[in-house]
Amino acid sequence: MEHVLFFLAAIGALGGAIGVVAMRNLFYGVLALVVHLFSLAVLFLLLTAAFLAAAQVVVYAGAIVVLYVFVAAYVGGDTESAWEPIPGQRFLAPLIGVALFAELAIAVLASALRALGTDGPDVAAGFGDPAAIGNLLLEKFLIPFEASSLLLLLAAVGAVVLASRRSAPSEGEVPTSR
Amino acid sequence: MTVEWYIVLSSLLFAVGALGILLRRSPIVILLCLELMLNAGNLALIAFSRMVGNEEGQVFALVVMVVAACEVVIGLGLIVAIFRRKLPLDVDELRELRG
After folding, report:
1. Which ipTM was obtained for this model?
2. pLDDT for residue A126
3. Higher pLDDT residue, A114 or A158?
4. What's the topology of domain A1-78?
5. Nearest Cα to B39, choosing from A155, A112, A20?
6. CATH value at residue B81
7. Is B10 within the bounds of a domain?
8. Cβ <8 Å between B83 and A118
9. Would B50 be classed as within a structural domain?
10. Is residue B74 part of a domain?
11. Helix or strand holding residue B25 (H, E)
């Protein structure tokens, strides 16, 4: 059962990732990202990370994908030009991708981590549930937690500044009429 | 499933994301591929946290998620600002900052 679920989720995650890369239409790419994210949430559940799986669905599928869809609708779908500025990019890029995968796989699988071949130790029933993560966040990792809240605040302010309508008209700029 | 499978899957996803960044020219698709790479890192973190039997890796993954959210907000804000100025949305034409 666990194996079947793993392979289904792995196929979903991989297919979604390839869809993001391969789709010409931006909307289909975003939909492929949704498939990828849900499959990843299933994988997180298999790894007994229940809170992370829920956060993945809420944060990504709930917030980030909606943001992408809105911006894609605002900017318009077909923005990619067909010409190839770097000679041989279409042949070189897959080569580099395959080389990167081979390097990562060799680096991990050839390491001396003996526990890689196991399922991991047996864990208690509450492993990775919200209470456990919350305890860690508020006790051991309090400073990173506060720092990440500051980062979120900065990102929100930055987005408002970047996307604000009234930008000072500098030279050569058409006054924003949209 | 042993932890190895998750790690191999995560490196495969990372390579696919990197391939997308190398191949595509639309900045929105490049941001999407960045998401793929961050998610692959998350999967590896959670798999290793399961391997050790310790939840601290999951806190790391949560922080990576926060960083991904910030990156998306800023990146999409930049894209909207670029679009407003009627500049081409193509990373090969937006090369003024290149050294």
Report:
1. 0.90
2. 77
3. A158
4. Four Helix Bundle (Hemerythrin (Met), subunit A) (1.20.120)
5. A20
6. 1.10.287.3510
7. no
8. no
9. yes
10. yes
11. none
What the block records as the tokens of B54 is 């310790």
List of chain B residues whose C-beta atoms are within 8 Å of the C-beta of residue A69: none
Query: What's the domain range around B58?
Result: 25-90
The DSSP code for A28 is H
Q: What is the pLDDT of residues B35-80, one digit of tens each?
A: 999 999 999 999 999 888 888 889 999 999 999 999 999 999 988 8
Question: CA nearest A71: which of B57, B29, B51, B45?
Answer: B29
* Interface contact flag, A101 B35, Cβ < 8 Å: no
How far apart (Å, rounded) are the C-alpha atoms in residues A61 and A70?
13
Residue in this structure with the two tokens 């960045």, named with its chain if needed: B34
Closest residue to A81, CB basis, from B25, B31, B73: B25
User: Amino acid identity of B31?
Assistant: L
Alpha-carbon distance values, B2 to A2, A34, A53, A115, B12 (Å): 11, 26, 19, 9, 16
Residue A40 to residues A67, A109, B16, B68, B91: CA-CA distances in angstroms? Answer: 20, 21, 15, 15, 29
Of B17, B26, B72, the CB nearest to A80: B26
Q: Classify residue B31: in a domain, yes or no.
A: yes
User: To which H or E segment does residue A124 belong?
Assistant: none
Number of domains in chain B: 1
Vertex B25: Cα angle to A10 and B6 (nearest 5): 15
Domain ranges of chain A: 1-78, 129-161
- The most distant pair of C-alpha atoms in chain B lies apart, rounded to whole Å, by 52
Distance CA A163, CA A64 (A): 17
